[in-house]
Sequence to fold (134 residues):
Amino acid sequence: MQYPVYVHRDTATAFRASFPDFPGADVAGNSLEELKHNAQNIVELKYDGSEQLIPTPTCDTSELRRLEMDDGEGIWMFLDINMSRVTSRVVGLHISLRETVLNRVDSAARERHLTRSAFFTLAALHELETQAGR
Fold:
């Protein structure tokens, strides 16, 4: 699956990148090839066998550019992450919301440096944990 990453040059020869769909999965490499390899490894380490749901990749580039991680000094790239090596499963979901609610969700997601998908995933998990604690 093609996941977006925001890539910065760390030094003259090194790179660092952040995945908006995988909060906390930051990656670095001395070359773009090494960055791509390390990206696969970090996703596997953080998500393989975990109970975290893996979001569908964000493909809306206008949504990505609105994220606070886009400081105008890096570039957006889409990296192929082999999800067959990760045991969690991705499930597509279509929902309908009032536009005002969606605008509030998008605003809250941007404040937390998350995509819409990641925000909904975390919100659902929070709600389920709250229900379980009752």
Notes: The first helix runs from residue 32 to 47. The mean pLDDT is 86.
